Amino acid sequence: MAFRNAKLIAFDGTHASGKTTIIYAVAALLRCRGVHVTTLGEPARASPFVDDVVIHNTGDFDVSLELDIFAAHIPNILRAARSHDVVLADKTPTNVLAYCEMLIPIESGTRDAEMASAMDRFCRTWGKVYDAVFFCQDHYLVERGGDKYRARVIDLQVQADGLLRAEHARLDQPIIEMPRALDIGERARWVVVRMEKLGLIEGEY
Question: What pTM, to 2 d.p., does this model score?
Fold first, then answer.
C-alpha cells in the first residue's frame, strides 16, 4: 500500500481468545531480535461508548458504539505504520462488523442499516492492507467469567467465532488459524516462525 512500508499483522478471534496476550508475547520475541515493532490495543478498551454500556450500565450495544470502535482501527494503524517496521494489531474492523451483526437488531431501510452497509463495503477494501491475519482459536470457560468488558458477551464465544470466520470468508480475507492449546511461549514462537515463512521478517529459527 502507498501509505506505509510497515508489515501489518492482525490477531483476530472471539473475545477472551488470547489476542492481547499473544500480541505482547510476539512483540517481545521480535524486539529481542531487533525488529522495530509496535502493538495496537483493542479500540473497544478506549471507547467511552463501551464504558457507558459495560462499566456504567447506562446504555446498550448499538450502531454508534460499533461505529466508534470500527473507526478507531483506521487512524491507529495509519499512524503506527508511519514509523515502525512491524505493526501488531488487536482485532480487525471485520471483527467489529461481525459483532455488530450479532448484537444489534438492524432494520432494513434505516440509517443504521446504511451505516452497517458502509462498514461492510469499507471492510472489503481495508482487509487487503493486512499482510497476515492470525486467528486465535482458544476459548475460555464461561464459568471463569472475565472483566466487565467481557462479561456482557462471555457466553457468546462459539457464536462469535463462527460468525467471524464466516465474515472473513465472505469478504475474501484469508486467516491463519493458530494451533489450539499451546502455552503462550509456544504460540508466540509459532507465530514468529510463520511470519518468517511468509517473508514478513528475516528468518532466524
Answer: 0.88
3-state secondary structure of 80: helix
Contacts of 20 (CB under 8 A, 6+ apart): 41, 42, 90
* 3-state SS, residue 176: strand
- Residue 125 phi/psi, 5-degree rounding, is -85, -45
Mapping DSSP to helix (H, G, I), strand (E, B) and coil, where does residue 164 land? helix
Write down the domain spans for the chain: 7-197
Q: Angle 22-98-179 (CA atoms, 0-180°, nearest 5)?
A: 35
pLDDT higher than 90, residue 80:
yes
Range 7-197: architecture per CATH: 3-Layer(aba) Sandwich (3.40)
Q: 106 by DSSP, 3-state: which?
A: coil
Sheet containing 176-177: give its strands across: 37-40, 86-90, 7-12, 132-135, 176-177
199 to 10, 14, 196, 204: CA distances (angstroms): 16, 27, 5, 12
Which residue type does 37 have?
A: V
Q: Grid cell 467471524 — which residue? A: 164
User: 93-138 pLDDT, tens per residue?
Assistant: 999 999 898 889 999 999 999 999 999 999 999 999 999 999 998 7
